Amino acid sequence: MATMTQDRRWTRVREAIRLHQLLGDAALALGLVVFSIGMLLIDRDTGRPHQLTTSDIVALAFAVLAVIARSRFTITALIASVVATNLFLAVDHQYQPTVTAALSLLVYTYATRTDRRSAWFLTAGIAVILTVCGLLWTAAVGDSVGVLAWIGMGTAIGDATRTQRAYIEAVEERARRAEQSQDDKARLRVAQERVRIARDLHDAVAHHIAVVKVQATGAKHVLSQRPDAAATALDNISRASDAVLKEMAAVIGLLRTASDVTTGSADTDPGSGLARLPVLIDYLSSVGLRVEHRQVGDARELPPLTDLAAYQIAREALTNANKYGDGTARLTVTYAADLLAVEITNRIGDHPGRRGAGYGIVGMRERATANGGTVKAGRSGRQGFAVRFELPLTAQSAAK
Description:
Radius of gyration: 42 Å
Number of helices: 13
Strand order of the largest sheet: 1-2-3-5-4
Order of helices and strands: HHHHHHHHHHEHEEHEEH
Largest sheet: 5 strands, mixed
Strand content: 5-15%
Helix content: 55-70%
């Protein structure tokens, strides 16, 4: 935690320097002047104080200008510093420490802005020029070695700084991409959740609205001749309306907060599974659909999502049978070793002009595919319709 805080602090410092580069360079030049004056006032041979010469003052002025210009005119200031170093060497037969310090700083700046090969190639060229000029103008060998060491140190520090900055930028970019990826995943989960809720609403509402439509149509036909049958149909409509309101309330209750969605929690309605088939069959029987229920194999506990998907697909198929069939249907549930198979068959009733939108079958296939299963729906024989879906019961499906 302390390291992250320190990195953020240095990042803010670097940003402040970038925004006020000229002021930073001026402050650096002022520090160089103070440091250089301290060195120039002490004789390098005797260690005693001595007065500044004209060359010292000119060197100070040049160093200040070179350092201030280093950010915007790095190459120009660097070339000028090399030329100035050789000029002072030709006149005074020794290196000016102020210009040497400025040259080292400029080499550092160049190394932070280019690749390693270019930086060291330029440093080698400057070293060759200064060495040759030092031999021509009789500079002390020790002084030449010292100047070359300062230039080499500036290049090494600049290269290390550039590498560190590149590493920090790469880490920040990876963190930004990771955060963006998490945001994208969260948005995808939200979209998937909305699709699931829309599908649940369709299943819940369409099932009961289909019952209401069937009963309302029947009541219309028998109202004048058989009022008692019409009253029964109206009672069924009332029960279906109550049921759809309850179903909608349950589905809306599945809406999660944003944090639940982004963390991927997958709570499901524990009461919606194949265990509710008898309740569903009783309800459908009360509204006019007789369902023959048959089970093959021993019932066992299923993975929650598989159990929920199986119930909802069966409910949708039975709703279609009630809406488009002749009032009877057969439901067969088969528990195999690694497979759950459910088949719903019914005879097609005489409903001229009645045609579904097709969303029910689409929803069945989506639910089955999401759980690694398949759905087959279509005509069976001349007057029949069958829906058969299979859901795997492997460890992989249970882990979903």
